[in-house]
Design goal:
Elements: H1 21-32, E1 37-40, H2 47-57, E2 63-69, H3 76-91, H4 95-105, E3 110-115, E4 123-128, H5 131-139, H6 141-149, E5 152-158, H7 169-180, E6 186-191, H8 195-203, E7 214-217, H9 223-236, H10 243-253, H11 257-270, H12 277-300, H13 304-314, H14 324-329, H15 335-347, E8 351-354, E9 357-360, H16 363-372
Helix pairs in contact: 1-2, 3-5, 9-10, 10-11, 11-12, 12-16, 13-16
Length: about 375
């Protein structure tokens, strides 16, 4: 049996990566020329896939690209541990070099090596250090390693918006900026899955990271690029899907990368050779069912007013929420109330606000709300 040609739930690579030619060229140019870059878009639009695609494209002995996931970091201390250990491990080829590098550049750090019980070849490196004394040493670590090795280091930090959640975050951000902005041999690519937090971090003039680098606002891959991609993937595996059917997949998912791939994946499995419209509709229902538990959990955590606003958006209202007729129809109480509801839903990462237009971050959640929550 042919392998399913679609991938979801992880960063896509190789032939699974959909055409983002201009974004790829832009980011690759930035990373190879040492330009700090901030990549911003809502979740599941393919930021991580794009960064990893560019990382794979750049194969040069004078450039070392390091990927660091900040998602698990809940504090400044966690950040330093992940930052230091990842940089040392990815710039050193042997465990002996790891330890030597740690001792040379982090003299006051206690280095610990953990071996797997199954094999002495499986090991990891961790550190213990007094943060206040060694913070600057750790933040200068990539610059010092780059100078010693005669290379340029690019640090790609995923889920960077986590730093906004740390205790005394502003002081921490100032510390990062004060060190990173003077480095000559290191550049940064910062991106994350919460658009409103990332935008606030880098576009608010009162924040330390204001104008830190080139801000790239990633857009959705348009339907006209998805359709040939989907059709080609089916054709490659000796199955047939029409352009209209592929367009239906794009319309339901609103071109959101992970959902386009996921829904295409389900349709592909249902079709023995030729896709029917019934298969596409069944696949949509199956995708909604797979996500039902997550959507129910979201709804359970909402107030009645928050849910009322989400119903309004699902029913096609995207502007004019403070109009009397909208407030009355959806029981939103007052225009002042609407502002508070919008802020709370934005913080929950359920909606995105672009000027006066409000949209769902998750098109499947919108469809589920429309199908399962009774109209007012």
């Amino acid at each position: 049996m042919e392998e399913n040609p679609f991938v979801f739930g992880k960063a896509v690579e190789g032939s699974y990566f959909t055409n983002r030619t201009k974004d790829t060229e832009h980011l690759e140019a930035n990373l190879t020329h040492g330009i700090n870059t901030i990549l911003i878009s809502p979740r599941r639009w393919g930021k991580t896939s794009l960064v990893k695609k560019v990382m794979a494209n750049i194969v040069r002995p004078d450039i070392k690209i390091i990927y660091i996931d900040v998602f698990s970091c809940k504090s400044e201390y966690d950040f330093y541990k992940v930052f230091a250990s990842t940089i040392i491990q990815q710039t050193s080829s042997k465990i002996e070099e790891w330890i030597t590098t740690a001792k040379e550049f982090l003299s006051r750090v206690i280095t610990k090596v953990a071996f797997s019980p199954d094999s002495i070849q499986e090991y990891s490196l961790s550190f213990e250090f007094p943060v206040k004394d060694d913070a600057e040493d750790i933040l200068q670590l990539p610059e010092r390693i780059a100078q010693k090795k005669g290379i340029h280091i690019v640090l790609c930090l995923d889920e960077f918006q986590q730093v906004a959640e740390f205790q005394d975050s502003m002081t921490f951000q100032k510390k990062l900026r004060s060190v990173w902005q003077h480095q000559q041999k290191v550049s940064y690519c910062l991106f994350g899955s919460k658009r409103h937090l990332m935008t606030e971090l880098f576009s608010d003039s009162s924040n330390p990271f204001y104008k830190f680098g080139d801000m790239m606002f990633l857009k959705k891959i348009p339907t006209e690029e998805w359709i040939p991609f989907i059709c080609h993937k089916f054709q490659e595996t000796c199955k047939v899907i029409t352009e209209k059917q592929a367009e239906r997949i794009c319309k339901v998912t609103e071109d959101l990368s992970s959902y386009v791939q996921h829904l295409s994946w389900i349709v592909w499995y249902k079709a023995k050779s030729v896709v029917t419209y019934e298969m596409v509709e069944e696949s949509i229902e199956e995708l909604l069912e797979q996500n039902k538990v997550f959507f129910q959990r979201e709804v359970e955590g909402l107030t009645e007013l928050q849910l009322n606003l989400l119903k309004a958006i699902a029913n096609g209202v995207d502007t004019g929420f403070t109009k009397k007729e909208v407030i009355k129809k959806y029981h939103l109480e007052s225009s002042a109330n609407v502002q508070g509801i919008k802020k709370s839903l934005l913080k929950k990462d359920l909606i995105d606000i672009d000027g006066s237009v409000i949209t769902y971050n998750d098109p499947l959640f919108k469809l589920w709300i429309k199908k399962n929550i009774p109209n007012i």
